Amino acid sequence: MAEKKNKGYLSGREIRAIAKANAKEIKRLEAYKNRKADESEFITEMKNDANILEIDGLHTYFFTEQGVVKAVNGVSYEVPKNATVGVVGESGCGKSVTSMSVMRLIQGPQGQICEGSIRFKFHDDETGEDKVYDIAKMPQSEIYRLRGKQISMIFQEPMTSLNPVFTIGEQLDEVTFIHTKGATKESAKARSLEMLELVGIAMPERVYKSFPHELSGGMRQRVMIAMSLICNPRLIIADEPTTALDVTIQAQILDLLRDLKTKIDGSILLITHDLGVIAEMADYVVVMYAGRVIERGTADEIFHDPRHPYTKGLQKSKPTLDSDGETLFNIPGNVPNPVNMPNHCYFKERCHECRACCSGEYPKMVQVSPTHFVACHLYSEEVSDNG
């Protein structure tokens, strides 16, 4: 039995204990999520009025038979007004789960936002005032006031995001009907055609009448962008919007997003694993690893003065024109098991700069400039003082 435990096996008693603890916590979180609440319970204030979104100490967990998967484990970063923030990291680092948490699209009951704040500056059309809502504390019934209207999302694969049995026009019009009071079929169609023209579709009337399978991948992605823009959102979350496209179409979509940010006077949260896309698009960069933010700063700081060994490794592993057949750098080892994560630095087993202090408590975020932060013991006061 001891040998099995060393290989990561759980006994029947342990599995039952995990299931019981999971069921109790899920019941509590589901009740909180589905409660009826007055607006005063989730209205709050921004720490910095220049931001449109502030994620503060966010914890999003998945309750499984093997234990609790801490997919997002204390993530904090901001999205300023009229800026593009790029989030980069390996697959499974928590980028998409963070964005899904903002949209409140985490698959329940196993997936739950357990702790933290997601502050968003909401514009009330009825009063004309700006309010700050804590999305993490909003009841599920209230989130529809934001989702799709003031916060919209462009998903990774447009073919699976569009419904194959409805025309493009029907799916675009639905957004207007849901979020615009007094919308008519004529006004919804006019708005849909306007958005199709805005995203560079040459024959909007033809595309409006088409089904998704009749369009190319680039056209479908443009349709998804048009759908996200219908209600003039303040924040667009683009979750790897160019991954499924070829290089030529990818460049067109990135140019389109850059132009649209200026036209709609909004902010973009761009999630990708491609550092080239981040360098081209982002004003600020957030680097994630194993569910945590390990470095963040301006694009210039992250690309020209990276501090965390993981950030440096990501940049070295990207091919360049100067590579000339050289073997690409490879970060050794694997991401640790997300169940029962240790308290020490998650990257220490893969880090070539690892020191004795890295086996201690998880490193705190250290400020190295007014806009540059890194979570690494190499930059803590104790290590710096000792050289």
User: Number of DSSP strands?
Assistant: 13
Sheet with the most strands? 8 strands, mixed
The general outline is globular
Helix content: 25-40%
**Taking Cα atoms only, what radius of gyration do you get, to the nearest Å?**
22 Å
Low-confidence stretches: 1-6, 382-387
Give the SSE string: HHEEEEHEEEHHHHHEHEHEEHHEEH
Give me the secondary-structure category: alpha/beta
What share of the residues does DSSP label as strand, in percent?
15-25%
Q: So how many helices?
A: 13
Query: Strand arrangement, largest sheet?
Result: 7-8-9-4-10-11-13-12
Q: What distance separates the N and C termini?
A: 46 Å
Q: Averaging pLDDT over every residue, what do you get?
A: 88
Structure notes:
It is a single chain. With about 375 residues, the protein is α/β, with parallel strands linked by helices. About 35% of the residues lie in helices and about 20% in strands. It has helices at about 1-5, 10-35, 95-105, 160, 170-180, 185-200, 205-210, 215-230, 245-265, 275-280, 300-305, 310-315, 380-385; strands spanning about 45, 50-65, 65-80, 85-90, 110-125, 130-135, 150-155, 235-240, 265-270, 285-290, 290-300, 365, 375. A hairpin with a 2-residue loop joins strand 10 (about 285-290) and strand 11 (about 290-300). Helix 5 packs across helix 6 (about 185-200). The radius of gyration is 22 Å and the shape is globular.
